[in-house]
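Collaboration report, partner site 2.

Our partner group contributed sequences for two proteins of shared interest, and the home lab folded both. The records are reproduced in the order in which they were received, starting with the first partner submission.
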Amino acid sequence: MSTTWDTLITDALVFDGSGDAPQVLDIAIRDGRIAARGAGLPRAEAGRVIDGSGQWLMPGLLDIHTHLDLEVDLDPRLPEVVRHGTTTVLVGNCSLGTCFGQQVEGEQNPIVDCFTRVENIPKKVLSKCVEAITWDNTGDYMDHFDNLALGPNIGAFVPHSMLRVEVMGLQDSISRKPTAAELSRMENLLDTAMEQGYLGLSTDGLPFHYLANEPHTDQRIPTQFAGYSELKRLLGVVRRRGRVWQTTPLIENRVKGLLYFLFSSGRLFGKPLKTSALSVMEFVLAPRASNAFLGLAKLINSSLLKGRIHFQALGTNFRLWSDGIVSPVFEELPSTCKLIAKEYDDVAGRRALLDDPAFVEEFRHDWEHGRKGRNLARLKAKLGLPDKLVIRDLERMIFDGAPVADWDGESMQQVFDRLRRVQRGQAAEARSEAEREAFAKFPSPTEDEVNFMLHLLREYDKSFRWWVDVGNKDNRATLGYLLHPSALPGFNDSGAHLTNMAFFDGNLMSLKLAQAEGLGTVAAMVRRLTREPAAFFGLDVGSLEIGAQADITMLDPAALQGWDSNDHRAFIHRELFDHKQMVNRSDGVVTRVLIHGEPVWQDGDFTEVLGSRRLGRALRAA
């Protein structure tokens, strides 16, 4: 018996991404596209009927800042984003990516060199990613997605660090300016990539993004060696094509950083440059810092400068785990940066540093900078304008994977205080024999928190884990940032920092925060997670219009209301990487996900369709 539609979803509360008030509607799908919308569509006309009663239905969500280009060739299903309702991901961010191929040159492996420390991904994991690469140019990279059983859709930036390596080689890309011929070749490669549908160019300016391979461990990634004239030339290509510049701020030199953000100005450069920059959140140590970014964006976007810039906002609290001292924020301190630069398994090398009196002195200086004494750094920190954003307050640092089980869930300050009481003769303060044995190994007396931390590092190296909320603590200001006209949700960093953080569910947390304000705010948030980013990046997704690709996410609003991301982060072993990874679980919140009209997540599990054939596609900017 013939049918009109392949699938009919009935009686769901539909948020169509326009921002308009939701309506209870039926959605019909045929050949992977939206075929009809309305109330009371005939059930008999559908081959499959899905009851959407009591559920929210919306376009599949976009994740605009990921590093899943590393994972997609190992597992094109990208299950850790699909399970949270994400059906489109953008890759090639922060000047890093794989679109030029392996780029291996002698003993140098630029992908491993760049990604290891910037995105905190172990070299053995990255080596597997590099081995999966079969292309050597931007065109073949886009085309190769046609041969993968893609889950989500993928859009890609041209990564500036890799563009420099492609033209200049790794060594020259971090040691000199490009010649006129090399700069022209970079322009030509970038323009060709724009013709092939790339979203734009990504660059990076954060001062703690270092290379990981000898002899370059004290050098930053290639994009940071580019001068103003080089960026102006390359961004001119992006501007002419109407594409996007994805970037991070030059926080070391605020005047220079301001100058670079002015690239977005149409008044100064003839045509606005769409710019998507990191990042706005309420930093614990600098709670008002993001207001400066938003004020800057308002000025650049004004009729005076005619820019088009937004800052990416994180939809949840920025909870960051550390393995010992191995964590992205500790690259900011010169002493801990030296520890992180050591090879992953080089325990002896880290121990030699920790036993070096000169290093210990440097570590103490870094740990206490802005926190002790009567000096300008301390004053700036008190005013919420610290030189460093690294939290070094033991009260905020919470054990989670401690070497002594009694410590898990406690702050380092609680353990430190108990240690000092035991060392002063109050032996009964020790909570267990394991803790007594651990305390006995500390130097006595352990005079201050610097000595406490140094002992933990000497004794346990990377085998103790702890977390701290770096930003958006208690989500007091998060919703305001997510809805701010100069911001856009999406700083999720999915696929990066394997052991340090997991924001795969950042979009869901954005919806949860909106839910507390009412359905009107939910409708606005759905728009911000679907149609707005799709329009900004020039992508034909994020819509439920007739004829649109049927990428759909369905949620249980009651489950969303009772769910908290902090309670559902997990540290699991992934066979894909043969390594542990931080992930999220939102089971029960997302009831169904469809990509190209096919259910890929339902009843709390992936369907057999996901990974069996290509559903998503390489998105080419229009």
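Second partner submission, folded after the first:
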Amino acid sequence: MKTSIATVSISGDLREKLGAIAAAGFDGVEIFENDFLAFDGTPAEVGRMVRDHGLEITLFQPFRDFEGLPEPQRSRAFERAERKFDVMQELGTDLMLICSNVSPLALGGIDRAAADLRQLGENAGRRGIRVGYEALAWGRHVSDHRDAWEVVRRADHPNIGLILDSFHTLARGIDVETIRTIPGDRIFIVQLADAPRIDMDLLYLSRHFRNMPGEGDLPITDFMRAVAATGYDGPLSLEIFNDQFRGGSPRSIAVDGRRSLVNLMDQVRRAEPALAIEVAEMPDRSAVSGVEFVEFAANEHEAQELATLLSAMGFSLAARHKHRDVTVWRQGTHRGINIVINTGHDGFAHSSYVVHGTNAYALGLKVVDAAETVARARALGAETFAEPRGSGELVIPAIRGVGGGVIYFIDDALATVWDVEFDPATPAGLSDAGLSVIDHIAQTMNYEEMLTWLLFYTSIFKTRKSRMFDVVDPEGLVRSQVVEGEHGGLRITLNGAESRKTLAGHFIAESFGSSIQHIAFACADIFATAAKLKHLGFQALEISPNYYDDVEARLGLDPQLTDRLRAESILYDRDEAGEYFQLYSQTYGEGFFFEIVERRNGYKGYGAANAAFRIAAQRRSIRPKGMPRS
């Protein structure tokens, strides 16, 4: 499988784009005409620059408004094509894209369009050039790949072929099964783009909101399964028009693009095992059965502050590392939750503390096979992580997360790490507030990075993504989306901050990009847990009394339940399946906090309706003394 990407998909000048594309591991590049025209070198110089990066030019595009024109526009279109052929020969590429005509002057008729393409094929053939015809979803007369194929079929010329673009097919809801009947050798190139499902003009959606396969809502895998069934074996190329990508890091977007293609074709190979699909072998996506541990980096003083907060939540010091300045905190004698505090003065944890202050810099995820999980992540372009290990210490496979943190993988063989590397502590008294497992973890990032995080998790792990929704902060919107695995083993809420004035944006800015902003613990009885926490000195986040009056009226709660919720500062939500209870800690540091939840009868959500009230309460709790109320 050869991978390609259009220069329009990423930011920067042409030199920067080519450098990022080559570094990400692509085989080829589509030269978008505007990028070429803005470059201050000759076509031959551009061609050499592409080849010097180890790339080939898979396509020169786009050539607009060609077929079906009346005279004199028709003759002028053929003259324009000859000029483009001149440029292509200097560039060193043999394939040009013609998109279906959108001009109001264009005349309809399949035969008329086919005749024009046949003549163009004759002209192109004399120069060793091929022309691909693509149906734009908003084309004046041809807006469907089935019609575009009929034009190509009737043109009946070896230098005229079809170009398929997933966006133009899927955004219009065209049946992808119709692709299977097209001969693979008549498809000259396949362009791929995903997009969110938004009720919007298709041209505007295409120009501003396309994204990488797997980042949107279109059935890209179904599209590619149909393409693979034709026997097509040419390049797969990304053509992404996205306002965020145009302002993002060229390297990061290029890496996302390559990851999306490799992941897509791995899914197609698994769905169509009978087809000979050329894609690198890799392990399947890993199922995550739970979070084995969360590790904090801190100095000695701030570690004590964190320990005090953990103690008030029913955690006790359970173990100390035999050789390192690392401790483990648990609920009594249970190992369902392992909170690790690392106060070492060397290694990555210390570096993370120096940059971010006290932060949750590492996760340990429970998987079936740790080595296979890392192998898949590596095949998808993730960076592996390793530090020197001492005598008797286990080597735990790990990768770097998108935000710079570390993700460790723990399988059954590595679950012995707590007994091998740690000595039991002897706390004065074991406490237990009834917290059982980590329910979910919330990671905060700049909104522009959310798609990168989403693709990272969904391509490596067996997860599904929820629809994005808005969380209202008094200082702006925060976009939130959930990634979750089967049976709740892994739940991560991704929160994209658009303004640093929001609580999420403040956390990113003041912690210099630290990503894990809160950790939610599950319990079986929220009211029993709240009583134990109060006894331990836990200070819950105080919720406005107005909230309880509203939730009682809105959801028809029994007044006695409302009184219990109000007394313990517990938030409430429910869905068609069950109920959800939330209790929050005060904020720690620059906006980190803990949450305690109870899910009843299969509740699936995360209390999104309560987020605005939680944020308002947090803002009140951290308001400097003397600061007026808004």
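Feedback sent to the partner group on the second submission included the following. The chain has three domains: 3-271, 288-424, 435-622. Confidence is low (pLDDT under 50) at residues 625-630.
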